[in-house]
Write a structure and sequence with these properties.
The chain is an alpha+beta fold and 158 residues long. The chain has helices at 2-17, 29-38, 90-97, and strands spanning 21-22, 43-50, 53-60, 63-69, 75-82, 105-113, 118-125, 141-146, 152-157.
Length: 158
């Protein structure tokens, strides 16, 4: 079960990194209906088609979100950008602060909700750790995945 969740999250992250724009008129009605049922008060900015399914880029109130659906309308997940580490849940923030990556630069934060469980991703690098010539000679980048309990469940090298 844990492997399938993490596998989906990997596909989820890859889906956000590759683009292929598509208009709403080309999005299957099953996908649009599932979206409208799940997010009745949302305003869709655009739809994108990917190999894995469809992504809605939308606003719900003041929040910008992304929802992922299979071609048959099955909801796969929702991604919510998080602006600051202070906005992370306390357990996740503590898990990150107690990890080996707490001194690394945080480039991006997201909450990823799936049918199985929510995860928090932190895209980090050690770009602030310079060599003697003041270069990012030791630059490494990871995507860290934390559970709601603040457990680091996975890290992917970028």
């Amino acid at each position: 079960m844990k492997k399938s969740i993490l596998g989906f999250v990997s596909v989820f992250v890859v889906m956000t990194m590759t683009a292929g724009a598509q208009g709403a008129n080309e999005t299957p009605q099953a996908v649009i209906a599932a979206f409208n049922t799940r997010f009745p008060h949302a305003t869709v900015r655009k739809w994108e088609e990917r190999k894995e399914g469809f992504i809605a880029d939308f606003r719900l109130g003041r929040k910008k979100l992304f929802a992922y659906f299979a071609s048959d309308g099955t909801w796969k997940g929702t991604e919510t950008p998080i602006r600051w580490t202070k906005d992370l849940p306390a357990a996740v923030r503590d898990g990150w602060r107690n990890s080996d990556y707490s001194a690394w630069r945080v480039l991006d934060l997201k909450k990823i909700e799936t049918p199985e469980q929510p995860l928090y991703t932190l895209h980090v690098n050690n770009g602030d750790l310079l060599d003697a010539d003041r270069h990012d000679a030791f630059l490494e980048e990871y995507m860290l995945f934390f559970s709601e309990k603040g457990e680091l469940v996975r890290k992917d090298k970028m």
